[in-house]
Design brief:
Blueprint: H1 3-6, H2 8-22, H3 30-42, H4 47-64, H5 72-86, E1 104-109, H6 116-129, E2 134-139, H7 144-157, E3 161-162, H8 170-184, E4 188-193, H9 200-217, E5 224-230, H10 235-247, E6 252-256, H11 266-274, E7 278-282, E8 290-292, H12 295-302
Parallel strand pairs: 1-4, 1-5, 2-3, 2-4, 5-6, 6-7
Antiparallel strand pairs: 7-8
Bound molecules: guanosine-5'-diphosphate (GDP).
Length: 304
């Protein structure tokens, strides 16, 4: 999938609502701004970020005295890209792989069903294609299906995987995986973790323990904690981001399933509000359907 194709639904939804909002109007006035506010909120940009965007456009209207509705899209693009730049939440390079020693350890967190396993598979594929030696760790030991699913991706991408039987200690699997990564000379170790929705304290304890054992092998590990969010769930994704960032230090985000949804605006809101870089976006089910997030390209595709 290309980015334009992947964001098609979000864009069509946005554009059709926008064209209603500006129908018969040549100038951006109070009414148009009210409608625009509604359009942004219903595109899942989120209330806080929408208000920021509207303020900026109001300022521009006041400054320039006159703003034509024909230019509104262009202005939105500029203001949103500006907003994302200010919060420095739009990294364009993916992971930087700089660490104090090999391997670079990525711990992946997120609720079941958001596309965590698929995202790990796609990352493994990309890293391997870039010439890196990759190892997976199946530390979601809570469900047998989770281990099997990850195994399928390991086979598909021909990347080794460390696992134990279902029900074993996730921290023990994580330890084994990082240790094997060192022994095998891996460049990257990607660790899957359990995604069941348990209470905050349990989640925190479990993730803390998994991190602690990795640090016994490599003091700086994990070098990334990647939170995977399902973009098609809109406001739920915000809620999950809140819960996980409260439970552990999340360093980067991946937002999946943007191809199947009209809620793509969620990327803009999340990236503005959480000040954590969105590094990857998922725009399909295939191996290649994971892109490094670039805020300019994203905004460009969205408001085309
Ligand atoms: P997990 O439970 O979080 O590990 O979720 P999975 O990786 O098993 O994914 C759940 C479903 O979402 C699967 O059917 C995937 O094919 C699908 N999926 C994952 N990422 C994407 C994406 O970017 N686009 C689409 N359309 N589907 C996706």
């Amino acid at each position: 999938e290309t980015l334009d194709k992947g964001l098609e639904k979000s864009k069509d939804n946005f554009l059709s609502k926008m064209s209603k909002a500006v129908a018969g109007k040549s100038k951006v006035d109070e009414d148009v701004l009210d409608d625009l506010e509604e359009v942004l909120i219903s595109s899942d940009v989120g209330v806080t970020t929408t208000i920021k965007i509207i303020r900026r456009i109001e300022e521009r209207v006041a400054r320039d005295k006159y703003l034509g509705t024909a230019e509104l899209n262009e202005i939105l693009k500029e203001e949103i890209a500006g907003l994302l730049s200010e919060t420095d939440s739009g990294d364009t390079d993916g992971f930087n792989f700089k660490s104090d020693g090999k391997p670079y350890v990525i711990m992946v967190v997120g609720v079941n069903g958001v596309g965590k396993t698929t995202t790990i598979g796609k990352l493994a594929y990309q890293f391997k294609k870039d010439g890196k030696k990759v190892l997976l760790g199946a530390a979601d030991t809570f469900r047998a299906a989770a281990i099997d699913q990850l195994q399928i991706w390991a086979d598909r991408t021909q990347v080794p995987m460390i696992k134990q039987q279902m029900g074993s200690d996730p921290a023990s699997v994580a330890f084994d995986a990082v240790q094997s990564g060192v022994t095998q000379g891996s460049d990257v170790v990607i660790i899957d973790t359990a995604g069941r929705l348990h209470n905050k304290v349990n989640l925190m304890n479990e993730l803390t323990k998994v991190k602690r054992v990795m640090q016994k092998v490599i003091p700086g590990a994990p070098h990334e904690v990647l939170l995977v969010l399902d973009g098609s769930t809109g406001q739920n994704a915000f809620e999950q981001a809140k819960q996980f960032t409260a439970a552990t230090e999340v360093t980067s985000l991946a937002v999946t399933k943007l191809d199947g949804t009209a809620k793509g605006g969620v990327v803009i809101g999340i990236s503005d509000q959480f000040k954590i870089p969105v590094k990857y976006i998922g725009i399909g089910e295939g191996l290649e359907d994971l892109q490094v997030f670039n805020k300019f390209e994203f905004v460009d595709s969205f408001f085309k």
